[in-house]
Amino acid sequence: MLHQSTKAPGEAVAAPPPTGTVRLTINGQQRELQIAPWTTLLDALREYLDLTGTKKGCDHGQCGACTVLVNGKRINSCLTLAVMQEDAEITTIEGLGTQENLHPLQQAFIDHDAFQCGYCTPGQICSAQGLINEGKAHTEAEIRELMSGNICRCGAYTNILAAVKEVVDAKTA
Amino acid sequence: MNSFTYSRATAVEDAVREKSTHPDSAYIGGGTNLLDLMKENVERPVHLVGLNKLPLTTIEPTPDGGLRLGALATNADTAWNEEVKSRYPLLSQAILAGASPQLRNMATDGGNLMQRTRCYYFYDTATPCNKREPGSGCSAIGGYNRIHAILGASEQCIATHPSDMCIALAALEATVRVSGPNGDRTIAFEDFHRLPGNTPERDNNLEPGELITGLDLPAKGFEKNFTYLKLRDRTSYAFAVISVAAALELEGDTITDARLALGGVAHKPWRDKEAENLLKGQPATADTFRRAAAKVVEGAHGYEHNTFKIELAKRAIVRALKQAAEGTQQASDVFLNSNP
After folding, report:
1. Average model confidence (pLDDT) for chain B?
2. Is the ipTM of this complex over 0.85?
3. Domains along the sequence of chain B with CATH
4. How confident is the model at residue A2 (pLDDT cuts 50, 70, 90)?
5. Residues B102-128 pLDDT 10s
6. A168 in any annotated domain
7. Which of A48, B82, B248, B332 is least enclosed by beta carbons within 10 angstroms?
8. Smallest Cα distance from B118 to chain A, Å
9. Flavoprotein: present as a keyword of the record (chain B) (predicted)?
């Protein structure tokens, strides 16, 4: 609830929320938004830019569904303000691949049946791309540990691991 | 979340001035804990001073042979830094034992010290909590208190400090560098965080408006014989039930220097110098380790659901010291050693 009023009925109406111009670079495109400073990056993407591929799960940094890449590094977009990410290069799931030209991780998730409901999948894939960019995970144990910030309520972990491992292996082959 | 205004500081002095001129304002670095608390209405600042443009991200040697971590270096960049990995592997291990890769990419080193307890009652604004609302009472005493303190608690508060990184910093004797309205100063790590006493609302000894600018690690890194042992309810991405940072210096089998700090047991990183003194000059044997462990829990007090932590802490200390003495490979060594 972005603009929820905390005033009791009959109390003086608070001044309108102080919106300001926030310039974001998302998937290579410059976007300019008029938003309040308390707008998280996640809400900016979903509510103001119609980039609904990034999911809101817990909204507290615990589930990883909102994972996006900022300057190539994976973060939880629910725990940062949009205004804090001006000048950064933001990549969402929409920027990784298209329906006609799937990203290798998207293809691998399909090939390995690495989801059931699919709600965590955009976050899993952005997180896996961040993991690949970091270059620290090679073995299954390492991938498990460094994908632990992404929860899958359907429990598709075995196949998520296989999908990520395939792309990690292809990158290092 | 309440409404607030936001400004971005580009110099430390500007940030300090901005903070001092805005009542009820807060600094925001990575924001991973502050924004979470704001969503829960536990924190309600009316103005945020954005720090992420401040030039405090570097990790560089100090003149006395130590290493300075910029307050805005991320936890991830610190844990994977080559100097930190090779000279202070205890710190790398502790950082990598905490949170998730996403959070470590956002969270800053200064912010790690500033994170607040994960006591469920502190987070739940429907319940009394002396830390959140002084004088309202403690819901954890007499409530569900499995994750709570066994050492140094008070009748006002039995919350624990949640950090892993800070346990290693306590063991390594880091120094906290701060800037404030009255100038710059340094704070020894053991003096940074507080015990709850009668003022559990105060987590640390920062004065109003003071900003952490960096952390200095002394030259000695205990890179040969160390362990960060973290016991938790799942293998990854969970807070410590008990954690132990153990660091030893050995000559043959004799312990010449020792550091011992615990997480998950107190309102602050719990370093025990008396236990360290029981280790020094002694042979690195199980008996020695057991004596030190017994010393640490000497004044421990359990509440209804966390009494198990007293025995668990003793066993964890003995195991951590044994691993440190033997130079045992640790869980996250796979990341530290198998990669270029």
Report:
1. 96
2. yes
3. 5-50 (3.30.43), 225-325 (3.30.390.50)
4. very low
5. 999 999 999 999 999 999 999 999 999
6. yes
7. B82
8. 13
9. yes
- The answer to whether B329 contacts chain A (CB < 8 Å) is no
User: Is A83 in the same domain as A141?
Assistant: no
Pairing between strand B254-263 and B240-251?
antiparallel
Nearest to B31 among A18, A80, A127 (CB): A80
pLDDT of the residue at A120: 98
| Chain A residue with Cα closest to B37 | A60
Q: Is B208 on the interface with A (CB under 8 A)?
A: no
Contact by Cβ (8 Å): B143, B121: yes
- B281 φψ region: left (φ > 0), alpha (ψ -120 to 50), beta (else): left
Residue A5 lies in a domain: no
pLDDT in tens, A97-131: 999 999 999 999 999 999 999 999 999 999 999 99
| A126 shares a domain with A66 | no
- Which of A60, A64, A67 has the CB atom closest to B36's CB atom? A60
Can you read off the two tokens belonging to residue A27? 């998937």
Does residue A12 lie in a domain region?
A: no
Of the residues A52, A75, A96, the one at which a domain ends: A96
Residues of A in contact with B35 (CB under 8 A): 40, 79-81
Q: Is the pLDDT of residue B338 over 50?
A: no
Residue of B102, B230, B237, B329 best to disrupt the A interface, most CBs of A under 10 A: B102
Nearest to B102 among A40, A76, A141 (CB): A76
pLDDT tens per residue, range A58-97: 999 999 999 999 999 999 999 999 999 999 999 999 999 9
Any idea which residue has 């929820």 for tokens?
A: A4
C-alpha dihedral, B31 to B267 to B240 to B332, nearest 10°: 70
| Residue A30 located in a structural domain | yes
In terms of residue numbers, what domain contains A152? 104-172
> CA-to-CA distance for A139 and A8, rounded, in angstroms?
57
Residue with tokens 């998280």: A40
Q: Min CA distance, B69 vs chain A (Å)?
A: 20
| pLDDT above 60 (res B335) | no
Contact of B43 with chain A, judged by CB distance below 8 Å, is answered with: no
Partner A contacted by B9 (CB < 8 A): no
Give the count of domains, chain A.
2
Please check whether residues A68 and A108 belong to one and the same domain: no
Question: Where a domain ends, among A77, A96, A115?
Answer: A96
pLDDT band of residue A3 (cuts 50, 70, 90) is very low
| CA dist., res. B79 & res. A25, Å (int) | 28
